[in-house]
Design goal:
Largest sheet: 5 strands, antiparallel
Number of helices: 22
Shape: globular
Structural class: alpha+beta
Number of strands: 13
Strand content: 5-15%
Length: 559
Amino acid sequence: MLNRKLNRYSMIRRYGKIIDTLIKYEFGYLVDRLKIGEFRPLRSRLRKREHTPAGTMSRPGRVRMVLEELGPTYIKLGQILSMRQDLIPMEYTEEFSRLQDDVQAFGFEDVRKVIREELGSEIKDVFEYFEETPIAAASLGQVHYARLKNGEEVAVKVQRPGIRKIIDADLDIMYSLAEFAEEHIPEARLYRPRETIEEFESTIINEMDYTQEARNAQRFANNLVDDPLTYIPKVYWDYTSSKVLTLEYIDGVKSSLFVGSEELGIDRKSIARAVVESFMKQVYEDGFFHADLHSGNVFIMKDGRIALLDFGMAGFLSPDMRNLLIDELIAITKSDTKLYIEILRDLGSIGEEVDIHSLKIDIDHLLYRYYGRPVKQLDTAAILQEMVGLLRKHQVRVPSNVALLSKGAMTVEGFGALMDPEMNIAEIAEPYARKAMKKRFQLSSIAGGAYSDLYNWSRVMRRAPMKISHILDVAEKGYLKLRFDPHGFDRIVAELDAASNRLAFSLIISAIIVGSSLIIQTGLEPYIWGMPMLGVIGFVMAGLLGMWLVVYILRTGRI
């Protein structure tokens, strides 16, 4: 009970910080529309308003400043939203992509404690040498250079102590704010705030599990084992846990530092081509891709190979999803709008609220510009960006892995342009796309798909008699039930339930008043203030209950 009170107090304080920050950057109208002003502490209301240059900034810029000021969880939310152009306008995604994750490093004693708890040993018992100053620090953790007892150099990523508790508390507040937004701001429902927070929760919780990042690295290493130009650092599983990740230390030059320098004698064009080709192989052949291949995550090794780092943001495309994306390319090159809309249906992106006729007109206009072009002339990243913006306009929800693919494609295109401004990424992608299309229509692939479908249908047919017999038995006994679950019905039931409770409460108050009046008329002893005491008590109770009901109605705005 005490912990619950403390958590509630902590949440109220956090709400106060959120409200103050929104008001500081001129979003006070949101506080009013969300009806959360009551959570603002009194001393905060009396405090003189802090001066900010918000008036000279754009609205997306002010939102970015709000996220930065609220801390790590909100920065992560902004970074994830930066790749969801299907959810928010492009000017916001571009602004959110500027969010910085650099924070102050935590102390070495905390590092020592986390390693002791996670690995079950002291640092000196595991490592021959461990650098106390981190080589990189972020909101979730920091990286230290170290050397194992056998002399191998490693990079040890240690999670920030207590970060999970902070994120859990912030997620609770985000969910409550999302519910407030859906209830009080009708236009916010278009952006599906609760679904967005659910997706964010899944992403950040997954990112906090370092064993998942280690598995991603291992999978990339297996997929790219035959690539002579790409290197994935080795995972040391004996020294890895959910909060500690130990990888091979890469002795090389960060490509972002290499840009503009010719002193190392490494060909930038070959580096750019190797990274882009690696990404295309990951997408079209492996179905498992690195979604954050910016210059800071690509190291150039002494032998000329490229090493990929930071595997927390990876995307998976099932064979069916890859086939749908290939169909999408075919629909674009053939300007087949009907096929494209059917693909969107298969992706589960089109809901009941989508105006199909209006969507078809806009897609027709977009595809017309690319009709008849060869694949090598298609700017894949630009098409993805334009198409995602169009889908957002029509409230078509893009699956998270497709949005991640769009983000990954644009990131790797930016890397290629940085390293080699003359590079044509579409030309590099063409052979991979053609190979995937060719494989899709090979007789063996068609036969394999037909066999899989035949097996599934045969399984359905084998089970059908038993299922039909069971349904008939249940119907014969009179137990067959139909479930009616229309969209939004729960909210209607809740409103009716609340209204009936208020009506019943009002009737009880009326009954107390009538009963008290009758008692006073009878002159029943004992007396107080010259009137029957029982009647007076009844009137006082009715008055208090009536005042409470009026205050409740005024606070909620519901009669």
